[in-house]
Amino acid sequence: MIAALTVDWQTITDAVALGAIYALMAVGIGLVFGILRLVNFAYGQLIMAGAFALALASQWNWPVWSGILLCFAVVLVLSLLMDRLVFRPLRTQSPAVMLVATFAVAFLLQSIALLKFGSLGKIAVSLASLNRPIDISGVEIRKITIVAVAVTVVCLLLLILVLERTSVGLHMRAASMDFQTARLLGVRANRVVTGAVLISGLLAAIAAIMLTVQSPLVTPGFALDDTIIVLAGVVLGGLNSLVPATLGGFAIGFAYGFLGGALSSGWSSYLQSLLFGAVIVVLLVRPGGLFTRYGQRAIERV
Fold first, then answer.
1. Residues contacting residue 65 through CB under 8 Å, at least 6 positions apart
2. Can you tell me whether residue 236 is helix, strand or coil?
3. What is the mean pLDDT of the chain?
4. What's the CA gap between 244 and 95, in Å, rounded?
5. How far apart are CA 93 and CA 76, in angstroms?
6. How far is CA 182 from CA 132, 173, 177, 299, in A?
């Protein structure tokens, strides 16, 4: 196994970039879970929709900034529609019902994309310049690596400020601890949920932009594998809090990127099996999550 690994700085920096993107996705998934107790399996399809928006803007020869705005608009509109048409009517139902509903939404969006764009998909080239490397102290690092890390750090800091310093953020924190009690104390449920869905959608749009830079070919299955891996990372880190969930997303993204670049071609086909096998082993030892306090239950509120 060791002989099959080939490690260089390019592999490490690419793994850091992927870990940063997965950390953003983990925050978006964990934020909705913290309030609604819902694992949103349609999150990847939101990212896919944003990626198709970038591809269409590139095909129409729109300026880069307008393509980015279109990406944000599409993802945010779909997020709000998902909240209004699915989450809100089913809010009083069991978590299993809502979970099945997100599966249905995911396959619906994927089927619409398949009918509209075909199985071959489209290519987004407007942000291809971010894939070019720059030389830093003799090490060539792709621009997307620097952008991904910087954007992730800024987004997480802004999210902390929102949660700590704004009334909506304080209501989100209260709702994540005890949603029913928070409502009795005057917290407006619709406002809190809509705020969480919007923030989650913003992070999905950012992830769509960065994933499109790394993989310009956008198909109906775009970001599906990434979402499954991030979900495993969120569980690995710990669903009970945003910080463990974020660390879990980064850890599994870094591991996936590192092993994907370091393993030889003979071993790379076993990458996902190795990764998910390692997740199972860790959860058998720490079922509450790798980055939670020992003995803390995974089902506690964020």
1. none
2. helix
3. 84
4. 22
5. 24
6. 49, 9, 8, 18
AA identity, residue 140? E
The confidence score (pLDDT) of residue 299 equals: 47
Tokens 């209004």 map to which residue?
A: 84
* Residue partners of 84: CB distance under 8 A and separation at least 6: none
pTM of the model as a whole: 0.88
What are the extents of the domains in the chain?
A: 12-221
For the chain, the farthest-separated pair of C-alpha atoms sits apart, in whole angstroms, at: 61
Cβ neighbours of residue 88 closer than 8 Å, sequence gap 6 or more: 190, 193
What's the rounded Cα separation, in Å, for the pair 72 and 54? 10
Neighbouring-strand partners of residue 284:
none
Quote the CA–CA distance of 15 and 13 in Å, as a whole number. Answer: 5
For residue 186, which phi and psi values (nearest 5 degrees)? 105, 0
What 3-state class would DSSP assign to 135? strand
CA–CA separation, 112 and 180 (whole Å): 36
When pLDDT is cut at 50, 70 and 90, the band that residue 287 belongs to is: confident
Answer yes or no: is pLDDT of 210 > 90. yes
Coil, strand or helix at 178: coil
Structure tokens at 238: 């710990």
Helix (H) / strand (E) element for 192: namely helix 189-214
Strand partners, 140: 135
CA distance from start to end of the chain: 38
Query: What does DSSP assign to residue 69?
Result: H
| Helix (H), strand (E) at residue 38 | none
Tell me: pLDDT of 297 over 60. Answer: no
> Could you tell me if 192 and 172 are in contact, meaning their C-beta atoms sit under 8 angstroms apart?
yes
